[in-house]
Amino acid sequence: MTAGTARKHRILVLGAGYAGASAAGRLAKRLHRDDVEITLVDAEEDFVERVRNHQLAVGRELRHRPFDAMFEGSGVRLKFARVTAVEADRRSVRVESAAGEEELAYDTLLYALGSRWNDHGVQGVVEHAHEISSRAGALRLRSRLESLAPGGRVLVVGGGLTGVEAVTEIAESRPDLDVALVARGGLGDWLSRKGAAHVRKVFGRLGITTHEHTTVTAVEADRVVTADGKAVASEATVWTAGFATHPIAGAGGLQVAGNGQIVVDGMMRSVSHPEVYVGGDAGYAMGSAGKPLRMSCATGTPMAWQAVDAIAAELTGLKQPKVPLRYFNQCISLGRKDGLIQFVGADDTAKDRVLTGRTAAYYKELVCRAAAWSVANPGATVFSQGRRMKREPAAAVEAA
């Protein structure tokens, strides 16, 4: 490279879930490929439709979406490797693949590594419980469920959205099993009165036993122990009690909140390292209602879009955009034949209005399909394409 020649601006996207994959495609459409080099890093070689992992766990086959085909011709480079460390002060990321360890440098980083299951430090969870936050976990649970004879006991721990979807999916697909749910609060207590009543109705129809206002303090091979000293038998325990972010963000020097999420401003930019942007569950962002956004697909992808548009604006000189980050509804599948659409306010507070039954199940299915489509067709909704950079930052100009 000759003296004074500017190289391409290096944009590194970590994580190819809903947020990361859609962000990479959106960046490729927003920016001119002669000016930028976009690299998407993920350990998987095809897209994991995480919101359907409970379906995968009961034996349903999901559509295969290889990243090679999804990003063919987009200009996005793919790096199939596991992220092992981020060194924010050095603007570098360490990854590990079958080929060995490697260090990747960046000028701009979009961190979208998402979240994983949270064992909350409860004894025996890691050793004895199943998780469905990952494809590998869902497949392990699938194998375990297939091994259970009629009458086998399955216990789902966690009464939130994931737990309710998982337990109803299992009960519907395996009516021969004894299926139960443990919830720290009341069943559906975050829903409206109508919404909670419908969930209870479906639980009754599917024969699901519910242990409400119960805290699990230990998980063993054949049972769980509760805070009041009681034991609940279980041959397959499924842990859905919340999600946690990967600790490498804080370890890498980025400012994080108490739960490990990276603290960002309204543009999804790290408050400690302005060259780092965040999309999805990894970001601690405030919604339009002035409350922190919960980890969810409903807000994770819009967060990524906001980050991408802010990056594009910064590099091309456009006005910084501001996308309202708010909630509209909670879409809950209750098996394949029933569902609940709980309409909510901007701050995620339940309204009286709900949609239930087969119509709600179809609504949820359309939402899942749309989310997957947006990933499989990266940048399809971007209309201002390939804008040139206003200038290349001085750090990206190399001497011979």
From TrEMBL:
It is an enzyme of class 1 (oxidoreductase). The keyword Glycoprotein does not apply. Its cofactor is FAD. Residues 10-289 form the FAD/NAD(P)-binding domain. Keywords: FAD, Flavoprotein, Oxidoreductase. GO terms for molecular function: oxidoreductase activity. It comes from the Bacteria. The keyword Oxidoreductase applies. Its EC number is 1.6.5.-. PANTHER family: 64 KDA MITOCHONDRIAL NADH DEHYDROGENASE (EUROFUNG), APOPTOSIS-INDUCING FACTOR 1. Belongs to the NADH dehydrogenase family. This is NAD(P)/FAD-dependent oxidoreductase.
